[in-house]
Write a structure and sequence with these properties.
It is a single chain. The protein is mostly beta strands. The protein is built from two helices and 26 strands. The strands form seven sheets. A four-stranded antiparallel sheet has the order 2-3-4-5, with no helix packed on it. 33% of the residues are buried.
């Protein structure tokens, strides 16, 4: 017999064969990536994916693991201008569900684990209270070689922390004034911006001075925030189901249910649980009500959506030789 071959074609991410589509499964958190891509936490798959606006998955990280290089629960994600992904990984006690560890992890643009920047460990029996199940580390944002985040020492004491990524050193940027307990924040060199439940957008300096930059209006339920390179701030209002933009003291609606319906008819009333703006002002948002990603182009306001993604399957080459 002459040599016979059985060939199974090898597939990598980005090719067009063996690529079944699937809907997004409970999308939760989003961060902007490089080249128009985005990072997304899918709670349905307990994973973090990197995909483009055509729905092509570039890589996927699986959660639910306690290993050093994987993650257990991704509660927050953010990305810097170089495409590095930063994740707040939360580990729970298997019996009580209490948070026992929170850490900030960094992943390279290809999805490979890079390093852990900060770890907080908690003994829930010695630290009773609401933080047992909700965690203390929130609102991370990375840019220009630094990552900043809020650390809730108590319901009344919130610190703004800063990590220099190259050296790994951590410092306290400032403590928020008493009574300021935000759900999210954006950071500037000498101040941070937050919202309160009355609909005010506040800028707080390192010295604790509070300046009101505008009012979003009522009814207002504080949601996620982000900023672009120009200093414009994007805010999700969970009360009115819209996203507003604040720039140089002027607050304007950017994404509303009516505008979304005009360009993409159908679906439920949107609920924007997470948003991220890249340096150019391109906005990505998770519409939790409709299990989709919404993208707003800053040049013309055009809205694009991703509801399904394509997964490639990796196979191998085989050769079988049969001799007479």
């Amino acid at each position: 017999l002459s040599a016979a071959y059985i060939v199974v074609q090898r597939e990598e991410f980005g090719t067009r064969f063996f690529r079944p589509e699937r809907p997004l499964s409970f999308p939760d958190l989003v961060a902007s990536g490089r080249d128009g891509s985005f990072y997304l936490v899918e709670n349905g798959w307990k994973s973090v994916i990197c995909a483009d606006m055509r729905g092509n998955i570039r890589f996927s990280l699986r959660g639910g693991s306690r290993s050093d290089e994987s993650f257990y629960e991704a509660w927050y994600i953010t990305a810097d201008e170089s495409g590095f992904l930063y994740m707040v990984n939360v580990v729970r006690d298997l019996d009580t569900g209490a948070v026992t560890k929170e850490e900030i992890r960094r992943y390279r643009p290809d999805g490979a684990f890079d390093k852990t920047l900060r770890t907080y460990r908690y003994l829930s029996a010695e630290e009773p209270g609401s933080f047992d199940t909700s965690g203390r580390l929130i609102a991370p944002k990375a840019d220009s070689g630094r990552i900043r985040y809020l650390y809730k020492a108590s319901e009344e004491l919130v610190y703004v922390m800063e990590i220099d990524i190259a050296s790994g050193t951590e410092s306290v940027m400032m403590a928020l004034p008493s009574g300021i307990n935000p759900v999210d924040a954006v950071y500037f060199p000498d101040s941070i911006a937050v919202t309160d439940r009355s609909g005010r957008l506040l800028r707080i300096s390192r010295q604790g001075a509070i300046h009101e930059e505008g009012r979003i209006g009522a009814p207002f339920i504080p949601g996620p925030m982000d900023a672009d390179a120009s200093g414009a701030v994007y805010i999700a209002d969970l009360g009115t189901h819209r996203i507003v933009k604040s720039h140089k003291g002027v607050i304007t609606p950017l994404l509303t249910p009516a505008l979304l319906e005009s360009q993409h008819p159908g679906g439920r009333e949107p609920l924007f649980r997470s948003l991220a703006a890249d340096s150019s002002g391109t906005l990505f948002a998770v519409d939790e009500s409709n299990n989709r990603i919404v993208r707003v182009d800053p040049s013309d306001g055009k809205i694009s959506i991703v509801e399904r993604v394509r997964v490639s399957r990796k196979t191998l080459w085989f050769r079988i030789s049969l001799c007479a």
